[in-house]
Every structure is written in structure tokens, then in C-alpha cells.
Amino acid sequence: MEWMAWTLPTALFFAAIAVMLMGMTVLELRRPCAERRGFLPIVTTRGDRLFIGLLVSAYLHLVVIGLTDWNLWVASLLSLAWLLVVLRWG
Amino acid sequence: MNKVKNNKAWWLVLPVFLLVAFSAVIPMMTVVNYSVQDIFDQSSRYFVGADWYRQVLQDPRLHDSLLRQFIYSACVLLIEIPLGIAIALTMPAKGRWSSLCLIVMAIPLLIPWNVVGTIWQIFGRADIGLLGASLNQLGINYNYASNTMDAWVTVLVMDVWHWTSLVALLCYSGLRAIPDVYYQAARIDRASAWAVFRHIQLPKMKSVLLIAVMLRFMDSFMIYTEPFVLTGGGPGNATTFLSQTLTQMAVGQFDLGPAAAFSLIYFLIILLVSWLFYTAMTHTDKQ
């Protein structure tokens, strides 16, 4: 695995993604989701909302890095809040 | 009647899952790892956090090539989509001529990218190329190697020549799928050719058109070989698009960290646009 040049933060990042995907799989098996429409302008499944949440979070990080001097944790906390909002009400 | 649910079928997806993991996911994870480190060699690498992202996002070279890339993709779509539709509408619906047209239309699609670049590089040369020399003989000062506008026009015309067929063939398949009863109804209503196009053909082609737009956007947004062979990104940096800027960074300068950060930003742009197209397509299907 040395050739993959792992670091602790990237390992934690991918572990979090893997846990999220596994959690979604277990949740889907236990409580299959139905498509619904929340504040997003399209009908979405739970997986769609997770994808939208992660994609927007990635862009949010880029905006904070590229346009501001804020600490990256601000972007991460905002992303977490966004992810929860979009999963619950999206 | 209760539907039997058998999740064991998911095991059949395992081979493709492993293949994608091996060929795409693991290399992508490695790129993420590279993007947060300054790597000199296997044993000396240092964590730099988001520094490479900051550097790349504030790099005017990236801004310029991103702008060029969006203008290029927009031009490609604005030319190829209407032209492809127009060609598909004029192609014969059946008979010997339709087969001949389909074969002729498919020929440019069979030519490899670097060969297309080479063909147009020679074809457009101001001294010996048929196109370049002819234009100069007609008194039009044309030289794609030194004039920015000429280089852009040549790269665009080359792409139109190479890929409009794809749009035309997709539209043609969409048109052929329209049942005759729609045309019969239009004839009874004495609908004009424009009304038939606007209210029958265009709505029925919507799905294939979305696929065509998505394919042409993604391909043109990732274009590398043809402009690299034709103009080498010049004159100056006039036709240096994102892929070429990335290659210069990763292979030319061996700046692996910034190149990895650049790749991920590039990937995110393509991911967003592809998702928008996918959503538009599935939304259309649901309607």
C-alpha cells in the first residue's frame, strides 16, 4: 500500500465515505426508501440526496479554499450541516 | 401476489465492482492522497494540506484554460447539435441511400484522434496543405500556426468534422423511432414542416439529444489529442485546453501534487455536469 502514499487525513476521509456507504446499504435493507420531493426541485431517493450532499460539500470546500482565508474546518462543519439538512429535508 | 426479493443477485455485480475498483477507484484514491502531499520520491513526501488546491485554484493558467475549455465546449455544442439535427432530418428514411448515408456518416467516427489531428495538421498547412494553401491562393490570409483565430477555427472545424456524425446518427435513430401515426395526424391537421419538427420530431428526439449533448460535452471538455497534434496548444497558449495544461503540469514539470489537485477539480466539474445531464435525462423519462 506504500505506492498509494496514504496519509492519516485522507485515510479518515475515505473511511468516512465507506462508513456512509455501508450505513446507507444497511439502512436501505432495513427501511427501503421511497422517492420523495423535499426542498430540492427534483424527486430524490436517499442515495440521490447523499450524492447531492457530498457533491455540494466538495464544491463548498473548493470555494472556501479558493476564495477565502477561512480555516478548512469551517467548510467541513458547513458541509456536515448541509449534508444533514439535505438528507432530512431535501 | 407477493414479489420475491432475492438480494443474492447482487453477487453478480461483484466482478464489475472489482474491475471498477481496480481500474478507477483505487487510482482515484491515490490521486487524492497525492493532492495533499509534496512528493519528491517514494520515501520523501510531506503533508501540505490544502495548499496545492489553493495554488491551483488561484493559478491564472488554470483560469485561462478553464475559460477556453468552456468556450470551446459551448462552440462545439452550438455548432454540432443543430448541424447534426439538420443532417439527420435530411437523410433518407429507408432504402439503399439510407444505408450509404449511414456508412458515410460513420467513417469519421472510426478514425483515431491522433490521425484526425495529423490529417488536419497537413490539410490546414499554409504552405503545402490543400485547405491552407487554397485559402491563401484565394487571398485569405490563413495560418493556424501563427494566428489565434485561425487556430481556433481549425480546431473547431476539425471537431465538427470528426463528431457531428455521432449527433446526426443519434438523431437519426431518434427520428426513425417516431411512429408513422404522428406524421399522419400532422398531415390531417395540415401542419407545416416547422410545426412537425417543433411539436413531433423535437420532443420525440429529446432523450437521444440529451445523450448527444452529454457525450459531446464530456468528450469536448476532455479533448487532448487533436489540438495537441494540430496546434500543440498554440499559438502561445491560445488552444491549450484543460487536459493539456494538466499534462504539462503532471508529465512536463512532474508537479504531482498540484497536478493531482487539478485532476480532482477537473473531475468534480465533469461529475457535476454529467450529473446534471443524467438528472435531466431521468427526469425526462419520468415525465
UniProtKB/TrEMBL annotation, chain A:
It holds the Pfam family DUF2160. Keywords: Membrane, Transmembrane, Transmembrane helix. The chain crosses the membrane at residues 6-29, 50-67, 73-89. InterPro entries: DUF2160_TM. This is DUF2160 domain-containing protein. It comes from Pseudomonas fontis.
TrEMBL record, chain B:
Keywords: Membrane, Transmembrane, Transmembrane helix, Transport. It is found in: Cell membrane. Residues 66-277 form the ABC transmembrane type-1 domain. CDD domains: TM_PBP2. It is a multi-pass membrane protein. PROSITE patterns: ABC_TM1. This is Sugar ABC transporter permease. It comes from Pseudomonas fontis.
